[in-house]
Write a structure and sequence with these properties.
Layout (H helix, E strand, L loop, with lengths): L9 H6 L6 H13 L6 H8 L6 H5 L6 H14 L8 H11 L1 H17 L2 H5 L6 H7 L13 E2 L7 E6 L3 H5 L1 H13 L2 E4 L9 H5 L3 H15 L6 E4 L2 H8 L11 E3 H6 L15 E5 L2 H6 L5 H6 L6 E4 L13 H4 L1 H18 L3 E4 L2 H14 L4 E3 L1 H7 L6
Parallel strand pairs: 2-3, 2-4, 4-5, 6-7, 6-8, 8-9
Antiparallel strand pairs: 1-3
Helix pairs in contact: 2-5, 6-7, 11-21, 19-20
Length: 393
Amino acid sequence: MCGLCLPHCPTFVLHETEAESPRGRIALIQGMASGALEADSALLEHLDNCLGCRACEAMCPSHVRYGKIRDNAIRLLAEKKAVPPPPASTRLSHYLLERSGYLAPAVYKLLQLYRQSRLRRFIKPAGNSTLGKFDALLPNEKNAPAPPAFSPAIGQKRGSVALFHGCSAELLEPATAWSAIRLLNLLGYDVHSPQRQVCCGALAVQRGDAKTAHQLQRQNFEAFAHLDIEAIISFNSGCGARLQEYESPLHARDKVVDICDFLRHCEWPAPLPWKPLQQRIALHTPCTLRNVLKAADAPAELLRKIPEIDLIELDAGGQCCGAAGDYMLNHPETAAQLRTPKLDALEKSGARVLLSSNAGCARHLAAGAAEKGIEIAVMHPVVLLEKQIQVTN
């Protein structure tokens, strides 16, 4: 209750009202828990406006677990039927993402047909409509085949790891998984990609659906439990953050690590056939990488291995870009406001490549750049890293 977190809260900075701050939201939750406040739509609105960026936790001298408090409050509100059903577009995206392990081939095919169809010509200009905003978030990269269940190390074996694909990464940036596997194999690691893994459950937690979140958690535990591995590696920071906060029985959550954080601690063979990159590259740091996984400096440290790279960090005060899972769909105006400083910094930098360790942030920033007329290639740091190494398998 000290208020030191307030200037670090994106919604408090925007609205300058106590109810839109971590301290204010905790007070509202306390009021609901004690029975002094009704669990109604007004209370839900303030909690729902929170991005879940966890910047408050990173700055809290008392280590208050604000994220856990808020998640439990949303769950209680959902149980009390105080949470209204989300828009149809949100329900559809949740349905597809949480079942991506089963539906991915069909969804890939549908996306490919949609990209080539005349229907997209009518939807794309309607940028302010729900469908228009959803369309803007779709990647333009070609679909990649699903990674094999096992990819052996190249040369001397140093260990075995497992790769968590997640759902958003699988649908929004399929090429990233392949880059991650090739780099890990090059560094001497066998890579397991369990075919039974599913969505991490972050979206279910976000909407207060404890039953679905627990079911997805259990399925992931079963997918990874039999493997003799030293790490579960995630290349989407949002998924990694959720996996690290799994409750029992996934005791292996202590093994969860972000791909860039893992790679920077690896022993890299020398000399490597690095290709110099005489180009300015902008790097965006997702909130989950900074505030939950505590690995904000990992991508930059890793990327500086590339000779002659001109790397700038798109910090913009260290605040959230506005993506925040499905927040960008449910709160488009606030999400756009929070994205603007990032886009302004990107445009001023002159960079033509933007890197992000979160698929949602990457698509949100890419859509904003397109609206603003900024020509930019957006990718995961490991994709650029692998491109600059002349790897042959």
